[in-house]
Write a structure and sequence with these properties.
By secondary structure, this protein is mainly α. It is built from one helix and no strands. It is rod-shaped and about 25 Å long.
């Protein structure tokens, strides 16, 4: 579960930039 959250955050940040 934590891993999924971390990946989601990484993807979100990548899209934001």
């Amino acid at each position: 579960m934590f891993l999924s959250s971390a990946v989601f955050t990484y993807q979100n940040t990548n899209i934001t930039i």
